[in-house]
Structures are given as C-alpha cells and as structure tokens.
Amino acid sequence: MAVAAPLLGLFDYLPSQAADAEPVPGQRLLVPFGRSNRVGILVEIAETSLEDPSRLKHVESVLDEVPLFQTTDLDLIQWAAAYYRQPLGTALFTALPARLRRPASFADDSVPGIRATPEGHTLDLGSLTRAPKQRALLAVLRDRPNGLTLSALGARLGDCSACARALEGKGLIERCRLKAMPQPVQTPSSAGHALNPDQRKAVEAIAESFGAFRPFLLQGVTGSGKTEVYIRLIQTLVASGRQALVLVPEIGLTPQLRDRFQQRIPGPIAVLHSSLSAGERERNWHRAARGEATLVLGTRSAVFVPMPRLGLILVDEEHDASLKQQEGFRYSGRDLAVRRAQLIGCPIVLGSATPSLESLHNATTGRYGWLRLPQRAGGARAPTISLLDIRDQPLRAGLSPVLRDAMQTELAAGNQILLFLNRRGYAPLYTCHHCGWVGDCPHCDARLTLHLGQQRLWCHHCGWSRRLPQRCPNCDGEDLRMIGRGTERLEEELRELFPQASLARIDRDSTRRQGELNRLLEAIRRGEIQILLGTQMLAKGHDFPLVTLVGILDLDQALYASDFRAPERTAQLIIQVAGRAGRADRPGRVVLQTRHPEHPLLQSLLSDGYSGFAAAALEERRGAELPPFAHLVLLRAEAPLADQPTAFLREARDLAERSDPDEIHLLGPAPAPMERRANRYRAQLMVLSRDRPSLQRFLARWNQGLHGLRHPKGLRWSLDVDPQDM
Ligand code: ADP
Ligand code: ZN
Ligand code: ZN
To answer: Where along the chain is Zn(2+) 2 bound (predicted)?
Structure first.
C-alpha cells in the first residue's frame, strides 16, 4: 500500500481487525504510520510479506466503501511513478483531490451501488444460461450503464446479494457510487456547422478507431475547426454511453471553450482546474469517477481522474509547455494521456496549430495518425506575415515608421490592432547614469523589473520587491534611468502617440483582478477597443476576429536564447499570435519587427510556414542528437552554498559511470541558466540516451543509488524525465 509520504516503495499491513468486507485495491485505508495514523491507498493484496510478521501492524479502518480508483487507474499511476522515478505515494496523492488526502469522507451525496464492467457489457449473455438469476441481473445492469443500488435491484429480482458477489468475482460487475438524485440532463441548444471535407475526414478516421488504442495528431491552423472536430467526436461517443476527457493547458484563460461544449454536448460536464474551490473540485471528481459526467474538461492533473466509461481522450494545444508539471512530481499530462489511452484501449487526439516537434516526429514516422486541417473553416483567410527590418529606423514607442503608418491607416478605417510585446512591467532595467548601479535582485542572478504604477522594483523570479529608490543607492546620484520597454510603458507611450484611440492592455498585472480579463475580452469583442497590447496571454485561446493588423515587437532576444527548445517556442508563439487575427471579410496582416531579418528561423517560418520551420528544426535536432532523436533526463540539484550542487552532481556522475551504463551519455554538471534563484544555487546534470528501455533500466538503478548518496543538509535534488525547460 502507498502512504502519503515521499518514500520509495510500498508498505505492508495486516487486514483490519474489524470485520469489514474484503478490501479492494483502490480503497483508502487509515493506517498507523510512525506515531500517528495516515491515509494510505490499497495497491495490492499479498499473501506473504518480506517484513518480520511480528512487526506488521493492522489497518486501522477502511475509509471508502467503494474503491476510489479502478485497476486501470492504478496501472496508470504506477506506470507514471515508475516512468518519472517518483515514489508511488507521491503519484497517488497527486491523483487525489486534496480533501481526500485526509481521512475525511466525501463531500458527496451518493450511495453505493453496482454496475456492469466493460466485460459485463460485451459478454455473450448466452454463456450464463446455467445461472439464470445472474443473467437476469446482468441484463438489467446492461440497460443502466450508470448502475443501480442493490435494493433497487432487489425490488425487481428479489434478494440478489449472493448473485452479485458471484458476478463481481467473475469481473462482470463492480461496485460503484450512485447519485442519490437523478441529474437533469441538459439538452444541447445549438447545432453545428456542416463539416468541410478535411474535418469530415478527421472525424471519420478517429471515430473508426473507437474501442481501440490509436494516437492521432490533429494539425490544424488556428480557426481551422479543430474544436468543431472535437465536438462531433464527443457527440458520437457519448451517444454510445461513454465518457470523453479533454485536457487543455489553462482553463482560466478560455471560459468560452467550456460554454461551447456545454451548448453542444448532452449530459453533465465536469470541469477540473486549480482555481476551483477544494469542495467543487472534489464534487466534480466524483461525478467523473461515478461515470456520471459525460465530459471531463481539465488541466494536466485531470489525466488521472477515474472515468469508468472513458472512450476518447483529446489534448488541445498539445505543444503547450504548461501541460507539463514543472515542480514536484514532474509529469507530462500529454504523454500520460497517450499512455492512458493505450492502457484502456481508446483513441487519443493531440490537437494543435503548432505541434511540438516530438509529436510531429511521431506523425511523420507513422507512429501517430496524421490528420491535417490546412484551411480556416468557414472561408476565413489566413493572415500574411512579413518581416520588418528596424535597423537604423527612427523608433517611437519601439514602433518603426512603417508600422506606425500602418496603424494610422487601420485606425482610420475603424479596424482593431494587436501589438504583442512579451515583457510585462514598465522597464526591464533601472540604472544610475552616474555610477552604473543597476537594480539587481539580492536573491537571484536577475535584474529587477520596474513597475512604475506601483512605484516598485520587482523580481519576476522570486517575487522579492523594493520601493523605487529616488536616489542611487550606491552614489546617491539623482540621475536614475529606465531602460527598455515592457507592456506598462508601451501602453503609456501609445496613449501619447494615438491619443484618440481606445486601448486595452492584457498581461498578468492588468488582469489580476477577478473578472477583469473577461471584461477586457468582452470590450474587445464588441469592438470598443481599437488597440490591444499584451504579452503571451494574447497568444492563448482567444480569437480576435476584428483585428486586421498584428505587430510583433522585440522577439530578437528569444532568437538567441540558450535553451535548445527556444527556436521551437518562438516559432509557436509567432504563429499563435498571428493566428488570432482576421476573418472572412477582413484578412489579417502580421508585421514582425526585427534586427535580424536574415535569421534562418524567421526565414524558414516566413517562406514555408510552421511546417517548413518544423522540418528544418527537426533536422537540426537530429544532427545534434537532441529530443526527439534522443531521450533526455535532467538531474537537478539546489543548495544554499555555491559549490554544493555541483559537488553532489559530480558524485552522482561518478555513481552513474561506475554502473557502466550502455548507450547513456552524461553531460555536466553545469550551473543552471540562472544559477542563483531565491538564494539557492542550482546546477544540473544531463543524461541522454537514444534507447528508451536502456535509459529506464539505467534510471531505475541510478535513482536507488542517488537515494543512498550523502549530501549536505539543505541540498535538494530531483530527476526531471523529458524536461521542458532547461
Ligand atoms: P480551431 O479550434 O481550429 O481554432 P474552431 O473549431 O474554433 O477552430 O473554428 C473556428 C471558427 O470556424 C468558429 O467560429 C467555428 O464556429 C467556425 N467553423 C468551424 N467549422 C466550420 C465549418 N465546417 N463551416 C463553417 N464554419 C465553421
Ligand atoms: Zn549611482
Ligand atoms: Zn529574485
């Protein structure tokens, strides 16, 4: 059994002394652990134990009548723990809503019942002729996929508890929870569009695979009707009584998506993301786990939510880095979704306008079915992108004369303009013109960002801040200057440059207040805003059909970043921002300002679009033996003193080399790109291998050894399998 503690391995207990029914894997148990009781989850039942029998303790009590997890759920969680080298307890408790990690019983109004398992649904009833009562019971349950209470069954068939036990033993029925009151089923309020031929092809290909594992990449430009494809598939699926799971990077940013599903899909939708209250989350979790929600729409952790009748998984914006958890249990919601589909045998669709190079590689090598929607749906035209060389140009507000003129023209015509600047705050640098002092974070290797409205300097990495000094802290000089430009400054400058125009700024600072983002989006949709400016929040999820001109400012830094994924991310960002603009009668135009117009990334993106860029980038990765042509693991270490992490990683490297690994390459240790962060020094060791199984075998041994390594107090280390940020 796994207990809520970051420990490797499972713990053995004797059955509870109370005369409970036989416990079932997936149930929560209360067990004595150290000096107190803890919640554990029963993973397996064994006849023997390696522990000294006199030291084994009894389970205190069984907390759940019905197991929270089914066997396939436990299989997925166990697989994830092994793959990402995490204790099973950590993985199991990540999969549980927070309230259920404590002994509390459910925030729930359900009653226990039974229902047919998938085997029970497909079994030939003729094979039960010699057990007519079992046959009758199963036949009734097959008509009620959500299940029935034993007393309801008794009312129809007489006492059937023995019969139910026999069927449960055969794996044909299982215990479940039932809603006490039947839920009203919403009827969908709107029909969809007639699908275009590309959409129809995609829907047919995926629907043909219902009932079997098959991964698909759905690559469709923004506005090509991917969501419409999802909706059709889910409609077809739920008509046969099954459930669908849709994973998205962030729900807070896309409330419209939920509305769209709600209007078109019959049956309750359970939404799961971090800004719901704990009670709401748990209730929705139960509705999914009871098989009652026909659709679960959630962020990455929803990949673990039990869904007894799951028949289709969709991952939208599959390239988005936030599908990967970046701390603690570092798992990829997307990759686990593929594994889950494989475990239960259902199709999975990864959708994006700008697929990750990993998924594209899987598509080009034929491992994934590759479905493409190259055209915008409903006749809208894709925007054209052009480069604007700003070298030697007189800039105002960071805008070249060409872009300013273009803006004037659009404003005069009553159109909307979008300006993208991926840096919030007023200025990224605050410095003394006399002595050269700059505002640095005392806890990080980072500059403080000036936020003029708040009169503060903020560190965007650790959250530390100080009041804006009026005189230089070093020489007491008065000539302090703000260098560079963030969205706050751009907004101020635009108000001077275009005094007549109405403006909206969209970034984390301007949308902090609850409901503010929606208020701004609504105003934009109604056409009350003429110029919208903002950070990458603008690149996610929202369409701005009235925008006819997009200006992308200052992406040059990203072109030369050290992370090998930086070009991929930059290309995705450009295409995603560009894709927000335009519709049928108002095609969009995108202008990208740069001082490096000859840069190969920009050139390939412009001449051949995202696919051309991706093909070139994949060739580069192949040459450099980087993912997806090799598998990557990072061992990260951080500690309060500068040389501690590197010293630990050197030992870790020795340990790795002593185990004489095949096909494993070690690189480093090296300091992390930002070595000091929140007063902790950070370093990393890279492990690369072309062969996944060798890598997994190596990691299993190495991870054990790492736990045995002595290290200074305060040092923390973690393995990051398939890291997204370097
Ligand atoms: P994506 O998810 O690829 O961005 P959507 O599914 O949101 O695309 O579709 C973009 C727009 O086109 C939406 O307004 C949608 O209603 C419309 N649309 C989708 N499919 C069709 C179709 N077959 N015919 C006409 N309009 C469509
Ligand atoms: Zn000074
Ligand atoms: Zn800091």
So the answer is: 441, 444, 459, 462
